[in-house]
């Protein structure tokens, strides 16, 4: 334990008898007759001791009032001042010291000045109050600098934002509800049938007229199979008949050669008769060789019948084959297979979309614009196409290719203009791999005078650089 002796402070210990008023929270006013800078004695007859009140100093007909709070000592009925501000403490000290020095005295219910002039109560902050107020704060000059800097930044941001918005509004035309569109061609089954073979795969490039899916029906397949079987049988008969006809033709040629040699080498008297025999043989009226000629004629008739039947069956086969080919799904245009929605052996009803083909035509951006802006756009107008790639915006160059008035339910239910934007600087493959179908984009068409202004500005900058 450390014991320290401090001398009493007279300013806090001496009690003065001068009237003070104490306005309680209940509305009652209590007169205090004994007080010091430390506190005051509350009259015993006044009941409960207050924690807060309004202290009034009656000075020559004028009341000086301020709020006070107390620490209560219930044993002695003494109320100690708590939390007085510097100005309140200085005001109370002026009256306290003046009464002790005799410059002021109590006259009935007021305090009267006995000597003039009386020290004025300082109403401005003391040095201690100024130091306490600025303690732990940034210097005023630095705060002023940061305030001015903040105002400049906010003003620059507002001016830049508004100016950019006004420039965009005046110099550009925004096209609404824009998105990337590819020319998709659905390929449907022309008639009901089974997917016999799927000849392509997703992503594969196909040419116009190429067979994509072979479709067949049991009836067509059976008829075509029967015709092909009959043709095969007849072709075998035709080959055998042709072999017999060739054999008989060889026999006929051998016999004619023998007659001709006999006529050439025989006696002269016999040559006339042999010559007539050879002529009858050539006219096929010789009775001796009649069976041979009849056999050869029969084979030729059979050969003609087989060939006629084959021609008929082949025509029938061609018709059935054309009917079977008509069931196949054929590429309507050159392009890439986007989606296959059929399986091998699956039955496809008529109108069933089996394949979706994207044509080789370059993908385009398409948007909608109010008809009142019709005069603001024209074909060939440059357009900034903004897309999002990797979380960052990217601007591509485009040009208006077509303007069409009407209603496009996919873009807007209102009557307006459908704006088609092409990408002249990008190849079809780059557009197809970079811009997915139905990808949302922002289209902003640049007005003609803005383009001219930018061109002239670039020319001037290039000239100044040179």
Order of strands across the widest beta sheet?
2-1-4-5-6-3
- SSE class: alpha+beta
| General shape | rod-shaped
How many beta strands in the DSSP annotation? 22
Count of individual helical segments? 9
What is the averaged pLDDT score? 81
| Rg, nearest Å | 60 Å
Largest sheet: 6 strands, antiparallel
Strand proportion = 25-35%
Distance between the termini: 90 Å
Uncertain runs are: none
The portion of residues assigned to helices is 25-40%
Task: Compose a concise summary of this entry.
With 466 residues, this protein is of the alpha+beta class. The chain has helices at 10-13, 86-101, 127-133, 140-171, 218-265, 268-282, 290-327, 428-434, 448-465, and strands spanning 16-23, 29-35, 39-41, 52-59, 62-73, 78-82, 104-107, 110-113, 172-181, 184-188, 193-198, 205-206, 211-216, 329-330, 335-340, 347-348, 353-359, 364-370, 382-389, 392-406, 416-422, 442-446. It is built from 9 helices and 22 strands.
């Amino acid at each position: 334990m450390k014991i320290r002796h401090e001398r009493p402070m007279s300013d806090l210990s001496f009690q003065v008898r001068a009237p003070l008023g104490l306005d309680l929270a209940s509305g009652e006013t209590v007169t205090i007759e004994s007080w010091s800078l430390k506190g005051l004695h509350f009259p015993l007859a006044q009941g409960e001791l207050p924690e807060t009140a309004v202290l009034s100093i009656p000075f020559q007909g004028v009341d000086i009032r301020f709020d006070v709070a107390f620490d209560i000592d219930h044993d002695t009925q003494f109320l100690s001042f708590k939390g007085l501000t510097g100005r309140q403490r200085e005001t109370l000290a002026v009256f306290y010291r003046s009464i002790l020095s005799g410059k002021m005295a109590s006259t009935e219910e007021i305090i009267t000045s006995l000597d003039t002039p009386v020290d004025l109560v300082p109403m401005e902050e003391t040095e201690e109050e100024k130091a306490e107020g600025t303690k732990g704060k940034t210097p005023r000059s630095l705060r002023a600098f940061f305030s001015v800097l903040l105002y400049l930044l906010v003003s620059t941001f507002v001016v830049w934002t508004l100016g950019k918005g006004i420039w965009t509004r005046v110099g550009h035309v925004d096209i609404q509800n824009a998105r990337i569109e590819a020319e998709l061609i659905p390929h449907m089954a022309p008639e009901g049938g089974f997917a016999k073979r799927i000849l392509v795969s997703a992503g594969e490039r196909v040419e116009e007229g190429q067979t994509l899916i072979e479709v067949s029906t049991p009836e067509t397949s059976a008829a075509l199979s029967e015709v092909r079987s009959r043709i095969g049988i007849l072709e075998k008969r035709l080959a055998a008949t042709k072999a017999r006809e060739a054999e008989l033709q060889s026999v006929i040629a051998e016999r004619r050669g023998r007659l001709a040699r006999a006529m050439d080498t025989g006696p002269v008297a016999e040559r006339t008769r042999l010559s007539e025999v050879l002529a009858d043989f050539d006219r096929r009226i010789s009775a001796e060789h009649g069976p041979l000629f009849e056999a050869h004629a029969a084979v030729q008739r059979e050969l003609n019948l087989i060939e006629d039947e084959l021609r008929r069956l082949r025509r029938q086969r061609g018709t059935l084959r054309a009917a079977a080919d008509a069931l196949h799904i054929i590429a309507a245009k050159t392009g890439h297979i986007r989606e296959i929605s059929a399986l091998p052996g699956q039955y496809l009803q008529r109108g069933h979309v089996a394949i979706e083909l994207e044509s080789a035509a370059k993908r385009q951006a398409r948007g909608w614009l109010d008809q009142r802006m019709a005069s603001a756009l024209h074909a060939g107008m440059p357009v900034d196409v903004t897309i999002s790639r990797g979380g960052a915006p990217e601007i591509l160059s485009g040009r208006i290719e077509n303007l069409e008035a009407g209603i496009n339910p996919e873009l807007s239910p209102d009557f307006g203009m459908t704006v088609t934007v092409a990408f002249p600087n990008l190849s079809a493959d780059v557009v197809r791999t970079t811009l997915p179908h139905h990808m949302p984009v922002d289209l902003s068409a640049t007005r003609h005078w803005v383009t001219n202004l930018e061109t002239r500005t670039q020319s001037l900058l290039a000239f100044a650089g040179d």
